[in-house]
Amino acid sequence: MGDSSDVPALRRGLAILRALAGRAGPVSAGVLARELGLPRSTTYHLLAELVAGGFVVHLPEERRYGLGVAAFELGSAYLRHDPLERLAGPVLRRLVDRVGRAAQLGVLHGAELLYLLKERPSRPQTLVTDVGVRLPAQLPASGRAMLAHLPAAQVRAMFPSSERFVLRTGRGPRNLPELRRLLAEERRRGWAVEDGVVTPGFASVACPVFDHTARPIAAIGVTFRHSCEGAGCGETWPGLAADVGEAAAELTGRISGRSA
C-alpha cells in the first residue's frame, strides 16, 4: 500500500463490502462482478484479499461469499463509539434553536422505538419521550416515520397480532390494516405526525434518517403542546415538518446515507 494506484483497488474493495452488506445472504463472485461492473478476475482478486483479512468469508460448497467476522467487528466498534448520537447532537441543537421546541432522536429496537438523544429548548416541557424510554413503535411519530419505509413483510412480522397494538390514550392504530393505511399516507406525505397518541395535550412531527442502503436507521422528531377533541384535528404541520425534514436530511448526509 502507499501507491496512488492502490486507491481504485481500495474503492472497489469497499464497493464489494457494501454490496455484500446490502444482500440478505451470501452471493457469487459472478453476481458481484456484474452488479459492480468489475472484471471477474479483478473481483476474485479483491475477494481473496478480503477473505485473507477476515472481512469476507468464502463458502466453497456454495461458491458464494458473505461478510466475515472482521466486518462484524468493525460494525460493533462503530456502535461502541456512539457515532449516531455524536453526529446527531449538533443537528438537533440547531433544530431546537430554529423551532423552539424539544427534539429527539429515536431508533427502532424490535417493535419498539428507543429514544437515544434529546435536546430541549430554553423553556423545557415535561414529556414522556426522554432518553432511554421505549414506546410501541406504531404510536410515536418517530416510530412510524421509520416503519413507513420498511418492507410490508417486515412490518407484518413486527406486528403479528392485535395484542401488539396497545393504546396509551385511546388514539392510534388498533390493528395491522389501520397501521398500513396510516404508514402509506405518511410515506406519501414525507413525514409522520401524532396528535395526543403518546401523551394527552402534546403532538409531534417526525422524519426518517436513512443509511447508505436507503433504509431507515433513525428518526428525528419534534414534540410540542397541542390539544384537540375527538380522534385529532387532522393537522399535519407542514411548516414544522419542513424544518424537521431538513434536519433529518442533514443527518442522513452526515452518516453518508441516501434518501429512499
UniProtKB/TrEMBL annotation:
Domain HTH iclR-type: 7-69
InterPro entries named among the record's database cross-references: ArsR-like_HTH, GAF-like_dom_sf, HTH_MetabolicPath_Reg, Tscrpt_reg_IclR_C, Tscrpt_reg_IclR_N, WH-like_DNA-bd_sf, WH_DNA-bd_sf
Entry keyword set: DNA-binding, Glycerol metabolism, Transcription, Transcription regulation
Coiled-coil segments: none
Gene3D superfamilies to which the protein is assigned, alphabetical: 3.30.450.40, Winged helix-like DNA-binding domain superfamily/Winged helix DNA-binding domain
CDD domains linked: HTH_ARSR
Entry protein name: Glycerol operon regulatory protein
